[in-house]
Structures are given as C-alpha cells and as structure tokens.
Amino acid sequence: MEYIFELPFKVRDYECDIQGIVNNAVYQNYLEHTRHEFLEHVGLNFAKMHDEGIDAVVIRVEIDYKSPLKSGDRFVCKVNVAREGNLKFVFLQDIYRLPDMKLIVKGKVTAVTINAQTGRPVAPRELVDVFDQYVG
Asked: Into how many domains does the chain fold?
C-alpha cells in the first residue's frame, strides 16, 4: 500500500506491560496521534471543527497485531485514507519497526463526523475535500 503520511516514534518504558512488550491498548494511542498529526498536516483541526459544531467520532477500530514492540524500539506509523459511503471516513494505518520495516500492526479506523447539536451525521466539505484528494 502507498501511504500519504507517516510519523516516527520511540517506545517509552511506561508503555510496556509486565511481559516487556508494548501493551495492546497503547497502539491505539499511536494510531490516534498519527491521525491527528495527519489532519493538522493537511490543514484540519479537531478543536476548530468542534468550535464550529462538528465532532469527529471513531465508530470502529480493527487492529491486527503482527509482532510486538519493546522499550526503546523506534517505529513509524503510516497512514492512507479511504471512504465508505458518503459519511464514513476510513484511516488505514500500519506500524513498522525501524530500521528493518518489520510490520508490527495493521489498523483500520472508521470515523464519522456529527453535528454536535443534533447528533446527526454530517460530511464537512473541508474533510470531504481532503479525503477525496487522496482517495481519487
């Protein structure tokens, strides 16, 4: 898969469990931070969207754990995007250990945006434009 954005990280000691590997839940933090950085990179900001009455909500997370990371490991989280219908925004995210590029995690995160007052799904033009730019 081709990626449109990537963000490097380093595993911190406190992210590991008693087995000495990154706790499974921590990977969601890595994926989330990378999504937010990607959106800021393309000029979108969750706080601004919220102030304008639109909230982004994750509705589904799928993670396949392929291999563990350990304390001190360096890795990169990569992103691509897709659409499911008019209202679902999909982030396809993979994590690779550096420098050998071993696949660690395959993730798919689906989000919708809702009108904060009504709770109804909406598709903000600026978000649609960004996704359509990369989806084609």
From this structure: 1
Contact by Cβ (8 Å): 21, 75: no
Give yes or no for a contact between 111 and 89, defined as CB atoms under 8 angstroms apart: yes
Q: What is the CATH number of the domain that holds 119?
A: 3.10.129.10
29, containing H or E segment: helix 26-41
Q: Can you say how many angstroms the Cα of residue 53 is from the centroid of all Cα atoms in its chain?
A: 22
pLDDT by residue (tens digit) across 19-30? 999 999 999 999
17, 64, 129, 132: the catalytic one is 17
- What average pLDDT is seen over the chain? 95
Domain of 36 in residue numbering reads as: 5-135
Task: Inform me whether the pLDDT recorded for 107 exceeds 80.
Answer: yes
Contact criterion met (CB below 8 Å) for 63 and 28: yes
Sign of the CA dihedral running 133, 122, 44, 52: positive
Q: Clarify whether 17 is annotated catalytic.
A: yes
Q: pTM of this prediction?
A: 0.93
Tell me which amino acid residue 38 is.
F
